[in-house]
Design a protein that fits this description.
258 residues, alpha/beta, D-Maltodextrin-Binding Protein, domain 2, 2 domains, 5-stranded mixed sheet, 9 helices, 13 strands, 32% helix, elongated
């Protein structure tokens, strides 16, 4: 039986279902000034011609179009971007700023628009009929000290976790047959699979554990900028409903990670 990887699945609904009924902001906003970086492909980076492109760039423009306001996108170095937002040099930072307790004291955050599940990768001949319980006693690659290593220890204690210095090293170990499977960040796994679909693929379901793997991608805003945050959240709901968010995801992530 030939396995054909499923690469074109839509985004799951990350927001609370009640958010689907969110109303547009009653406080008008003239524009949204997005801040970003240019060193985080495929989210925000410069292509060969120097043009700023990426999933986040397209999403920012779609948000502005949905809200029907002017849109600017300004590039900052990563180590200065959060400070620029704090100094009100922009209205929103769309660059993957983590929703940590420290950042939560400084910023507000939009709803999650892209969650980051954990997933298993195996060789193609092991995908059919894959069951996590079937890994008991087998070797599974994980990044040393990662939340995914904690997941295996907590939920699959019978697995022999094999630590590697990086996700790529662990995935290469699956390809070479050194280990039976890899467990880690599904997005990083998808990037690797872009070039390795002949040998390997995702196996089993996606595991969403925000407490372990983080809340995923959100948009940071200066604390108290409620009209802009409300407008962005409303736009994200609308973009999911009308299919635009799924379209962007499928365009930028041809090997889907859900």
């Amino acid at each position: 039986m030939t396995y054909t990887p499923i690469s074109a699945q839509p985004l799951p609904y990350h927001a609370d279902p009640d958010a689907r009924e969110i109303l547009p902001s009653l406080t008008p906003i003239p524009a949204i000034r997005f801040l970003t970086t240019a060193d985080f492909p495929p989210f925000n980076y410069r292509d060969e011609s120097g043009e700023l492109v990426g999933f986040n760039i397209d999403l920012a423009r779609r948000i502005c179009a949905e809200v029907d306001v002017a849109c600017t996108i300004q590039v900052w170095p990563w180590d200065q971007a959060a400070a620029a937002l704090s100094d009100n040099l922009g209205d929103a930072l769309i660059a993957g700023l983590a929703m940590t307790p420290e950042n939560g004291e400084l910023f507000d955050f939009s709803a999650t628009y892209l969650a980051l599940p954990g997933r298993f990768v195996t060789r193609k001949d092991a995908i059919a009929g894959f069951r996590p319980e079937g890994l008991a006693g087998k070797q599974v690659a994980v990044r040393d000290g990662s939340a995914h290593a904690t997941f295996l220890q907590r939920y699959l204690p019978g697995v022999e976790a094999v630590p590697f210095d990086s996700e790529l090293a662990g995935l290469d170990a699956v390809k070479s047959g050194q280990v039976d499977a890899w467990f880690g960040d599904a997005m990083r796994g998808a990037f690797w699979l872009n070039d390795n679909l002949a040998c390997c693929g995702f196996a089993g379901e996606a595991y969403f554990r925000p407490a372990l793997f983080g809340e995923g991608f959100t948009i940071a805003l200066p604390a108290g900028h409620d009209p802009v945050r409300h407008a962005i959240d409303w736009a994200l709901v609308r973009l999911k409903q009308n299919g635009a968010l799924d379209e962007l995801y499928l365009r930028w992530f041809p090997v889907g990670f859900y």
